[in-house]
Amino acid sequence: MKSDMEELMPRLLPVDLGENTGEFSLTGPPRNPQEYLRQVHLEASLCPDVVVAEIDPKKLKKKQTVNVSVAGCPAAPVGFSPSLSWQQQQVCNFSDMRQRITKNRIHWRNQTLDENVTMPKVTDEDGWRRFCLGETVHLETSSCHTEAETGPGIDYNKVGFPPFLTIVSRLNQTTVLTVLEILIGWFEEHAFVPQLGLWMYSLLACLEKPLLPEAHSSIRQLARRCAQLRSTLESEMDETLPALNLLICLVARLYFEQNDLADQPEDESQD
């Protein structure tokens, strides 16, 4: 007599069990396809229709927690928020840049790097901070900065390598996200510097959509840090304000669609 499960689930591979089913052993190898199917059927018949897992309550005491930040950006001080038209123009420019990078990525990737360019390994956090920001910023020294400016040429080891297309075109998505996280982590504890802005813009331009969950978290962290720093500025003429507004705009307003972080323009007629 068929079990309830057999009645509900039609057999996809009918098997002629014959009269000597009991002679089969589950330990020996099948001699032909028919014996294989009969062994499978016999194994299935020995399994209970319902299996109840035995769970040790003691193992459930340790709670699994996931830290998810849902906080938005601090509101911009009066007079510090860009107009919607300005934000839309920046997004348009950014979109064009992304398309150019994508279109010419193979070309730039095949170009030979200068002899002084040694890219760090993906996991070398300190190496990437030095590479992108330079020893002057990374080590927070001033003497190196003066020597670099007065020397016959630019010492990129001291002032940081700009995000040349020959460099960023070589970064795969894992490296792009890793470097982004490294620099955002540095930014959490330091002031904004021009080298950081250049790299943030370029890495965001190389970040492919749809975004991975880790990328969502990182760029939201970036926008919140920019907004937090902006809230401490004393003047609308501060030279870091446009860069902070730009990064917030790209992450929040339109392109990466983190709309809850977006600035609400005070006056749409502003430039």
Automatic annotation (TrEMBL):
GO terms for cellular component: Gemini of Cajal bodies; SMN complex; spliceosomal complex. Keywords: Cytoplasm, mRNA processing, mRNA splicing, Nucleus. Pfam families: SIP1. It is found in: Cytoplasm; Nucleus, Gem. GO terms for biological process: spliceosomal complex assembly; spliceosomal snRNP assembly. It comes from the Eukaryota. The keyword Metal-binding does not apply. The SMN complex catalyzes the assembly of small nuclear ribonucleoproteins (snRNPs), the building blocks of the spliceosome, and thereby plays an important role in the splicing of cellular pre-mRNAs. Belongs to the gemin-2 family. Part of the core SMN complex. This is Gem-associated protein 2. It comes from Takifugu bimaculatus. The lineage of its organism: Eukaryota, Metazoa, Chordata, Craniata, Vertebrata.
